[in-house]
Amino acid sequence: MPDDSVLVNVLPISSLPLKTFDHEGQRRLLAWILIDENARSSYESIAKNFIEEVQETEDKKTWRFKFSPPRLDNLSLDTRGWMHKDTGNYYVHEIIGISNILSSLPKKVPFYSEKFKAGTRGGGTSNVAKPNGSVSSDTIDDQQEADIDTKPKTIEVPTTSFSFATPIETRKVVKKRVPGAQGAETEDYEELVELDLGTDEATIDGTACQADFSGLDDDSDVLELYMQRFEAFKLLIKMLSERPKTDCTEKLHFLPAVGRSRLHRTMDGNRRSLLEVRVKTDTSQFVILEIDTTDNSKPISTLIIKINDLDYWDDHMDEFLSLVVKRSLRWPKASYLKKFDDVYTLNHPKSMLELTESSDDFIRWQKRLDTVLGLAE
């Protein structure tokens, strides 16, 4: 692994549902608890205090929950509570947001499990067995084991926003065997190509529906992490912005979940983004659109639209993003796009990862863009 990475190996005996690792906020929180010494010592204090202070009788164990809080330097809390008028004391009933969390973590934390499986992206309906009986409520019965034949049910709980001062990049990875020296095999790790998730925590004899809780909303500022996925394209825009009387502004969008499609996420479990660049010249204004396909899901050309009414474009942006997902990472049809004005596409050079601003492929790419924007000399 690179020096700026730490691999988290999820053991086969782990009872944590694998779908937890589909959520980048959950992965980032897990990385913080496991790797950051400040957070980990606080988390481990729960078990330590339980072992030292639990009281056991013939039929039960009792323990008053206690832990050692982590250091909270420069932390910001968003709370609900009430102010006592006479004493001036503020009583906190609920913490609904934690922000500016300081951490000591590597830049990248990949997660590996032998249950992560590579394959082809599936479509159609899922062959999940129906439960023997209907689940009429969200009542949790800890005395029952989860039934292997029931579909997991997500139980909505109030969310708590969680934001790191310096967010890290997390991914799911699979193990790849590559030929080693003298015909031997060595193990390496690569970006996950596709997932066929399965989990072993339910039992055949169980009777209860499997339940997952969704109560974390990660608000970390991850803009810089996602922008790194557009390095070659951003170099093209940087050169464009240096031209006289040309103004460029960037905005990052995330593709929405649409139906059962998983294309709103890249194959490593992160959100798939779309970079919009608004270009204003002396005579016209354009939007240039680029989709994150760093997982090599599908090659798609850059879309350029000459825009007369930016407000009209903004009003239709959510619809546009949904159409991209519905069309399996293809741009909406020309008949739809023409309502905004003239439409162009710009093909990518073949070796995007090896481009430099002095390479012939990059110069030709730049000239094609200049021609579309009416800037060719």
From TrEMBL:
<protein>
    <recommendedName>
        <fullName>TnsE C-terminal domain-containing protein</fullName>
    </recommendedName>
</protein>
<feature type="region of interest" description="Disordered">
    <location>
        <begin position="120"/>
        <end position="142"/>
    </location>
</feature>
<feature type="compositionally biased region" description="Polar residues">
    <location>
        <begin position="126"/>
        <end position="138"/>
    </location>
</feature>
<dbReference type="Pfam" id="PF18623">
    <property type="entry name" value="TnsE_C"/>
</dbReference>
<dbReference type="InterPro" id="IPR041419">
    <property type="entry name" value="TnsE_C"/>
</dbReference>
<feature type="domain" description="TnsE C-terminal">
    <location>
        <begin position="228"/>
        <end position="369"/>
    </location>
</feature>
